[in-house]
Amino acid sequence: MPRGYWIARFTVTDQAKYEAYRALNGAAFRKYGARFLVRGGPFEVRVGEGRPRNVVIEFPSYRAALDCYDSPEYKEALRARGDAIDGDIVIVEGYDGPQP
After folding, report:
1. Cα separations in angstroms, 28 against 57, 83, 88
2. How far apart are CA 70 and CA 81, in angstroms?
3. DSSP per-residue string spanning the chain
4. What is the Cα–Cα distance from 90 to 100, expressed in whole angstroms?
5. What whole-number distance in Å separates Cα of residue 81 and Cα of residue 75?
6. Spans of all domains in the chain
7. Which residues make Cβ contacts (< 8 Å) with residue 60, sequence separation at least 6?
């Protein structure tokens, strides 16, 4: 079964609210088996426009990735975050087929 991923690119606009969100989001991430693959760090934009913060989170399945975002635990973290970021979060199913 393919894994699921959250791909987030954003700018933090309110650090205090963002820290409140980070203090709460771990409950949902633990419950749904999340694992950070990318959490900030250096980067180079090769095509398009970049954002200061880039995050990739892996889940055991696409369903787990969706369920985590929709969970009461994550909704609580989102309430704390409010309008603290400007950016994009995409939930995508991983590829489990043949490789080149």
Report:
1. 12, 20, 19
2. 15
3. ---EEEEEEEEES-HHHHHHHHHHHHHHHHHTT-EEEEES------SS---SEEEEEEESSHHHHHHHHHSHHHHHHHHHHTT-EEEEEEEEEPP-S---
4. 25
5. 10
6. 4-37+55-93
7. 3, 4, 32, 33
10 Å Cβ neighbour count for 71?
Answer: 16
CATH architecture, domain 4-37+55-93? 2-Layer Sandwich (3.30)
Residues 19-41: what's their mean pLDDT? 97
- Mean pLDDT of all residues in 75-98: 97
**Half-sphere exposure of 47 toward its Cβ, with a 13 Å CA cutoff?**
0
Share of the chain above pLDDT 70, in %: 100
What six digits make up the tokens of 63?
Answer: 């369903």
